[in-house]
Amino acid sequence: MFAKPFRVKSNTAIKGSDRRKLKADLSAAFPLLSADELSELVPNKEELNVLKSYAHKGDAVTVYVLHKNPVFFEVDKKLFPTVYVLWRYPALLPAFKTWPPVLQKLTGGADLMLPGVVVPSCGLPDVKQGDSCAVTLVNNRAPVAVGTAAVSTEQMHCLGMKGRGVCILHTYMDYLWAFGDKSGPPSLPDAESEAHGENGEECEISDKEEEEVDKCVEEQHSPEETVTDQAQSCFEELSLVEQDEEKGEKNNEKEEETQDEQKTPQEVMDAMLLQCFLHALKSKVKKSELPLLTSTFLRNHMFSCCPSGKQLDIKKSSYKKLSKFLQTMEQRYNIVRVKELTKGVESIVEVDWKNPELRSFSFPEDTDVESTPLPDGEEGEILYHPPEITTLYSVSARLEPLFLNANKRKGATLHPAEVRSIVTEYVKDNELVDENNKNYVTINPTLCDCLLEKSEYQEVVSLKWDDLFSRTLGRMQECYQAVFPGQPPIVKKGHIEPIDITVASRGSNKKVTLMKNLEVYGLDPAVVASVLQHRVQASSVLQPVPGAKDKVLVQIQGNQIQQVGKLLLDHYQIPRKYIQGLEKAPKGGKKK
């Protein structure tokens, strides 16, 4: 997590209430700490800072700093001690022992693999999956890394000590350690090393180190895990140069990805904005189109050059406004000339086609240069077909006797036509049609138990066919079946949730349009948000739906119900009965 530089958002002194809460949280998380030890780590009067930061992968991390040393950090509401604290209290966390050469790999961002774990004579510490744990080195109890157990101790033995053992979050010599006084780990000999003698132990493990390191780092090179220069130099001293050279080629292939990870979201958006700008000028804009409205240039040209799967949003860039971005392009690169031809309306009046920046620009591989932008902004979108939704009925326990002859047990789902057919066949097989009036069906004991209320047992002796069918369906569990093209049918209980569209107020006079349940109909909320953003030229945000798993709420600025309705009804072909809230669309005023 801290193998690369992290970005500090704020660094403030802790409040009194937060100090008390931190002490209570630490007492609950680390019951081995006594009251005096807690007071040493979270003193009442000494300055304790709260540092809010973002790791290089975007994870939000809260770090608590005492005497300029980070003492604890919090990730996903879980507290972890730093190596500075563990050097003072080495028994605070259960620890796994490994070989000294492995530390260099851990510092580079790798996890501890089970082949690299040294099993002591007393056995491995008892941990469950997700428990906090430390990593120590042979001959020294001072922890050098902190993380969480990838699997439980029992599973480690079941796996034959193969696979991932500890997911590393923080290590000695990483950037969180470097935020402190950069002191080294103390020498704390363990019981085994004292019993066997350090010299003998060193001689005994020296021949095994390379073999064990080969095993434990074999699976540790994922696209996000690269080895630092410092780790490589240490491994050269350990005669592992050949292995690092083989890994080096893979690391070079991932260099571009790691560079993107180090950029902030704002820097990534700035780079994408420049790429789309140059792409649009080189492949979309013709000299005959000039002068070209800047808004038209953005909507019809720049948006269509956005890489697939990504969303261009100027408000998330450092420029915030298109006019400021174009002004920068004009002053810094002299690529375009922007002029206000009418009051308040800017246009691109000139483009320098021979500009070296523009001429040297090459088209990215993940965009289609020859594609033409669609007027509604649905460029690059996969063709969508709405699901076929059918109402079904499930056999309940009460109605099971009525469907036994058709071999339909409790829980079987049927179409309404199948229900009518089975009930009709049951009536005819049992000769229950009224001889005097064939519009009525005589009630036998089975129908009485299945369809009548207790108060009707003595009064109702026959029912009309329509009443018979409606009572049968009314006592069955309603379900629905959704069939998407090329996929097996999906059957779920209850009514299908409609796509819900509402308008909410934000602030004094701002309105936003909210959409949910798009996933039920196979629509990707991110794609819908992107298309709407292009159509209405307003910002959109994706938010999780409170209390619902795997559901996302789409929020777009302004009352956009009319545009949402057109998109769902005309483009996606969703039937109107499955859309709720279209009546809230603003009514058009009188044209002057």
Automatic annotation (TrEMBL):
It comes from Astatotilapia calliptera. One of its GO terms (cellular component) is cytoplasm. Belongs to the eIF2D family. Translation initiation factor that is able to deliver tRNA to the P-site of the eukaryotic ribosome in a GTP-independent manner. The binding of Met-tRNA(I) occurs after the AUG codon finds its position in the P-site of 40S ribosomes, the situation that takes place during initiation complex formation on some specific RNAs. Its activity in tRNA binding with 40S subunits does not require the presence of the aminoacyl moiety. Possesses the unique ability to deliver non-Met (elongator) tRNAs into the P-site of the 40S subunit. GO terms for molecular function: RNA binding; translation initiation factor activity. This is Eukaryotic translation initiation factor 2D. It is found in: Cytoplasm. The gene is EIF2D. Its main location: cytoplasm. Residues 499-572 form the SUI1 domain.
